[in-house]
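re: that chain from earlier
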Amino acid sequence: MKALLLAVALLAVAAFIPGAAPAAAQSFDCAKAAKPDEKAVCADAALGNLDTKMATLWWVVEQAPMMMGARGAARDEQSAFLKARAACGADTACLAKAYDARIAALQAQVKDQMQQYCKAIQLC
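^ sequence. v structure.
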C-alpha cells in the first residue's frame, strides 16, 4: 500500500514538472477532435499542457480509494467541467480559465484524498 501511495504521489508531482507534458492533449485524441473546444486545446500548446495536467490529476483521483458515493460525485464534477469546457467553444481565454479552475479543484481533492489515506494507513 505504501508503494501505491508513493507511486500516485510521484505521478501527481510529475504532472507539474515544466516541459514534462507534450503540447498535445492527453484527455482525448487530437486526431479525432471535432468540437471547437477540443480543436482549440489541440491547437494551443498552453491549453494542451493544461489538459495534460488536468488529465493526470483526474487519473490520480480515479485511482485513489474513495468513500461510498464519492466516486459518483467526482465523475459528476468531471462531467460538469467537460460541459463548461464545451461551452467555451474556441475561446482560449475561457478554456484556460475553465482548466485553471478544474485543476485547482482536482489538486485540492487529491491533497484531501492523500491526507485521508495517509491517516487511514497510519502513515502520518
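The CA atoms of residues 15 and 56 lie 6 Å apart.
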